[in-house]
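[recover] target loaded
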């Protein structure tokens, strides 16, 4: 198949860990690479955010990345990108007239808006005998869920409330990354028979239990990894640390993510978290690492007794899988994708969200039973490898593409039969 991915703000070439660069970038890069390994041709279309970027780059994986000019050629926060979506759709239309994809896969709602628009434009239809290009959509995050949890802190444009469900209802197929998302998609009117599920995966060649590990500063080490945004719940991990220390445990906490370490001082969330640690009397036990390059992350993860992953909500959450793949048990908030990936009592512990007490208590139980905890790590490794390899996910996704193409061809034929049949 010739597959066109659209990932407006999340380029597979981006450096991870910044405010807008995380799981989606990894997802698009890894899924595309795995699809190329299966013999497909994959081009990722992303917005040009730097004037120096070439029009087309071929990644070592064989995936082509095309930079489409849409808005200023500089970083623009994703919540300010909507005005440039029509220009992105223009660029997609031009590209898809030149090299026709069999299927289009939009990532995040704005890419979906552009993908649906371009795939159905008259010129694109004409070039395909009157048929639009089938569109598959993965949202990665849903506006109404974000609004529910973040309220007025949500900086998404107001139009998202209308456009996102529209994309969901008009895409040929929507791929949910977890079972929780299926229910959320149903609630915005996406038909059940148009929803497929394909989770995010983990690079279990990079994230392994064997390999170098950092030395620790204290006998017990835990970490929280993710972009430095409030909803990732790093504050819950800091509060849980304070409780463990109050119990007399000698623990340190790594906070990984955010801008590079030397730029942390300029980050508002960092300052708030640092002040919290100060207030709780544990600032000397919290090591804010800032952004850590992904190839370095396994070295950090292997040094942990446990990973804390305590977001308020989480559309999927690749980080706990990365820890599991390294054989590290996870204490996770039972929200979103974490409900599917972390099996309570088997690969880690699930606790209520925004509950430092519950996180501390789950950690304490783990620390007091090292053999049982090692077993959680081993089971986590098994689960990550067996269920979440990108090759397996690419197999599921390409099956979804194939059934989408078949359905859309059948629908187009039916439509033609009705209109032509009625006029002759
Ligand atoms: N990541 C990284 N360095 C960092 C912080 C995060 O490489 O300093 C990577 C991490 O390994 C994971 C991704 O960024 O692959 C974050 O994905 P996740 O789904 O957990 O969260 P998101 O950022 O999508 O909300």
């Amino acid at each position: 198949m010739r597959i066109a991915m659209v990932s407006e703000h999340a380029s597979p070439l981006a450096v991870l860990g910044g405010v807008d660069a995380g799981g989606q970038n990894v997802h698009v890069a890894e899924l595309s690479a795995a699809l190329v390994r299966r013999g497909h041709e994959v081009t990722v279309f992303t917005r040009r955010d730097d004037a120096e970027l070439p029009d087309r780059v071929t990644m070592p994986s064989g995936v082509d990345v095309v930079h489409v000019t849409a808005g200023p050629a500089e970083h623009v926060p994703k919540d300010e990108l909507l005005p440039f979506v029509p220009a992105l759709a223009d660029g997609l239309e031009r590209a898809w007239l030149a090299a026709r994809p069999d299927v289009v896969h939009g990532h995040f709602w704005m890419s979906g808006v552009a993908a649906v628009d371009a795939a159905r434009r008259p010129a694109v239809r004409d070039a395909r005998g009157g048929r639009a290009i089938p569109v598959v959509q993965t949202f990665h995050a849903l506006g109404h869920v974000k609004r529910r949890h973040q309220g007025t802190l949500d900086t998404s444009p107001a139009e998202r409330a209308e456009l996102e469900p529209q994309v969901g209802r008009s895409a040929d197929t929507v791929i949910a990354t977890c079972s929780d998302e299926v229910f959320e998609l149903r609630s915005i009117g996406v038909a059940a028979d148009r929803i497929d599920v394909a989770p995010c995966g983990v690079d279990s060649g990079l994230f392994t239990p064997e390999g170098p590990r950092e030395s620790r500063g204290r006998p017990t080490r835990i970490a929280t990894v993710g972009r430095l945004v409030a909803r990732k719940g790093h504050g819950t991990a800091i509060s849980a640390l304070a409780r463990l220390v109050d119990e007399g445990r000698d623990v340190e906490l790594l906070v990984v993510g955010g801008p590079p370490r030397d730029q942390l001082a300029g980050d508002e969330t960092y300052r708030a978290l640092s002040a919290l640690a100060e207030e709780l009397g544990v600032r000397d036990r919290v090591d804010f690492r800032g952004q850590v390059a992904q190839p370095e992350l396994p070295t950090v993860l292997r040094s942990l007794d446990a990973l804390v992953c305590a977001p308020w909500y989480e559309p999927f959450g690749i980080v706990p899988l990365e820890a599991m793949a390294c054989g590290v048990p996870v204490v996770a908030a039972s929200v979103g994708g974490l409900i599917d990936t972390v099996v309570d009592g088997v690969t880690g512990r699930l606790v209520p969200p925004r509950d430092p007490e519950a996180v501390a208590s789950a950690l304490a139980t783990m620390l007091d039973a090292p053999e049982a905890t090692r077993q959680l790590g081993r089971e986590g490794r098994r689960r990550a490898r067996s269920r979440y390899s990108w090759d397996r996910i690419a197999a599921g996704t390409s099956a979804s593409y194939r059934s989408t193409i078949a359905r859309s061809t059948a629908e187009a034929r039916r439509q033609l039969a009705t209109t032509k049949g009625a006029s002759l």
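[recover] notes: The CA atoms of residues 332 and 399 lie 31 Å apart.
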